[in-house]
Amino acid sequence: MCGTCGCGSDNNGPTVLKPGEHQHSQSHEGHHHHGHAHDGHSHTHAHDGHTHSHDHKHKVLEIEQDILQNNQVLAARNRGYFEAKNVFALNLVSSPGSGKTSILERTLSDLKEEIPFYVIEGDQQTLNDANRIDALNIPVVQINTGKGCHLESDVVYKAVKKLELQNDAILMIENVGNLVCPSMFDLGESKRVVIISTTEGEDKPIKYPDMFHTADICIINKIDLLPYVNIDMEKLKNYALQVNPNLQFFEVSATNGDGMEAWYKWLKSNMPAQT
User: Fold this and answer.
1) Which residues of 163-199 are buried (b: 16+ CB within 10 A; e: fewer)?
2) What is the DSSP code string of 183-200?
3) What digits encode the pLDDT tens for the residues 229-246?
4) Closest CA to 269 of 238, 248, 253, 255
5) pLDDT band at residue 146 under the 50/70/90 scheme
6) 152-165, pLDDT tens digit by residue?
7) What span, in angstroms and rounded, lies between the C-alpha atoms of 74 and 189?
8) How far is CA 37 from CA 43, 55, 185, in A?
């Protein structure tokens, strides 16, 4: 699936499922074919008596460029589709365990009577998160990426079509938990929201700068644990602003609801007007 880190394969690529569907009913999506990197090494292959020398380092660079360019083209298609349907799409990214799904659940529970939501869940395996969203009676599709470590724009488009996305709505795309690869792949979203928890330490923005650089919003979750963890909130925000001076912050607790109203106000202000 990922041409930059080598994850994914045709035998274990992404599947798009609704809660209650079985994986065997879905064919694996044909994804990228890419070679294996042997940095700096060249070797020869014999084909019908002819010998050819290949520079694998050069080849890998070309493949990576092609995959990223292809993703950008398809992301532009997604963005045009969302704009045509007047849909505000959010790409939720974070490390595993930061509380993406918990924030999403609370947001949907509190606002579903005011805002029409659709959800795409991204995980390597299981429908666990999609089932949690389905229990709230919110339309949801699960993308299982197999060996892949992130979502890409083509499979998001397939999931959107399966969702039968209606006009004038908010689409929440919960990406695979990973602070590295998802930063490189535009999904056609309106805004990117990076979520970090107080239990992760304040240096994540400078350890993983690409993710924070590409984000529009930074939600700091689990503020209810501040009395019990050793973290400097101002240092965390300063580090993030060093990477991206335009970041907007929300400090929340998905567990007890602290700070969620400010997040909800922002969401409502971006709710598409009825067409």
Assistant:
1) bebeeebbbbbbbbbbbebbbbbbbbbbebbbbbbbe
2) GG---S-SEEEEEEEGGG
3) 999 999 999 999 999 999
4) 248
5) confident
6) 999 999 999 999 99
7) 12
8) 12, 10, 21
